Amino acid sequence: MPSKSQPITMDAVYTAPGYLFRRMQQIAVSIFVEECSAFDLTPVQYASLVAIHTHPGIDATRLSAVIAFDRSTLGNVIERLESKALIERKPSREDKRVKLLYLSKSGAAVLRDIMPSVERAQLRMLQPLKPADRKTLLTLLTQLVDLNNEASRVPLRAEDALEHLGKQGEGALGTGVS
Amino acid sequence: MPSKSQPITMDAVYTAPGYLFRRMQQIAVSIFVEECSAFDLTPVQYASLVAIHTHPGIDATRLSAVIAFDRSTLGNVIERLESKALIERKPSREDKRVKLLYLSKSGAAVLRDIMPSVERAQLRMLQPLKPADRKTLLTLLTQLVDLNNEASRVPLRAEDALEHLGKQGEGALGTGVS
DNA sequence: TCGATATTGTAAGTATACTGTCAATCTACC
DNA sequence: GGTAGATTGACAGTATACTTACAATATCGA
Asked: Among B63, B128, B73, which Cα is nearest to B100's?
């Protein structure tokens, strides 16, 4: 039967999945930034570096599909990474609209060096749970994100978003797509 | 044994809990905004309305503790709610620094009317999972958020943050703390 | 009571995150 | 081959989210 307008309490907030997701995200960012403070990289900037490392010569639009971040937002992120000299932007010869993204030497170095801190952060987020529960949570969360993919404004389009890149082969991409 | 600098792939991103939390939060907001589009309320604005409804005469600082949102951020949120005439701000007589928050008539009406849409949104977020899995995920997430409370920049200080309010008894708070 | 300390709201600055729009450019169809 | 429609990066605008700083005010200790 339909819930007949029960009184509104804080439980309406505290038990709502949306609220829990928000809280958890805030906690996760907080832990990430703390662990990685020595590198002055945000989670989004880190993810961008990984994606550019994995797909050298990717453009901003495809990058946004690969990490499921908004294209507009990514513009600023790229700007900051460039101003920190962690990446380089080169105009494409085939398409004058496109700017290709590459890791700089220092970008590659930062990415290599930050990995242990990132792993430590990821561990800390789940630390309070029992190991078995961590695994369960991750499994369910992965499923849920995947099944809800289309519901998000920027659905993840992992490797298949990069088909165009393979063609012209801007150098030695080791198309690491299994 | 320590992982000997394995090659960096996109899996370093896709399987990281932090990334999954971010994705899920984006999806959750997207669904919330879609379901509640008729009311032009964001998740944060909704949570603020609930908290002000539950604790009439609360001030901004305590509100931030009750919903675990940043105090600075909340300033803007309150401003927007006020400019939409959903809440009212009255200076406290006991403390000239403080501004007390109350729902306006139209704020109370909006809160009442939006509840079904909010519930629909919360259901949709978990919809793709089997009912048993939904419960498991919520349980684990609740635990994790609670146990990580102090790790976040703005730890939740639910009802106990409101002790001061009870004293002067700014009206009929039904201290619904079990 | 007076001075150090703390709290409150506010503001400025940075960084996501999303909505639009726009000009330049590319593609495809006719 | 020339134009309609799509794509690309950029920009403007709104809304969290956090940091630091600040003035006004409160409070507490000596």
From this structure: B63
**Chain B residues 4-63 with a CB less than 8 Å from chain A:** 5, 8-10, 12-32, 43, 47, 50-51, 53-54
In a domain, A89, yes or no: yes
User: How confident is the model at residue A8, as a pLDDT?
Assistant: 87
B38 in any annotated domain: yes
A173 lies in some domain: no
Q: Which residues of chain A have pLDDT under 70?
A: 1-5, 153-154, 159-178
Cβ-based contacts of A140 with chain B (< 8 Å): 129, 133, 136-137, 140
pLDDT digits (tens, 9 = 90+) for A18-54: 999 999 999 999 999 999 999 999 999 999 999 999 9
Strand order in the sheet with A87-91: A58-59, A99-103, A87-91
Domain total for chain A? 1
**Residue of B3, B35, B50 to mutate, testing the A interface (most A Cβ within 10 Å of its Cβ):** B50
| φ/ψ (deg, to 5) at B58 | -70, 155
**Which residue range(s) make up the domain with A45?**
17-164
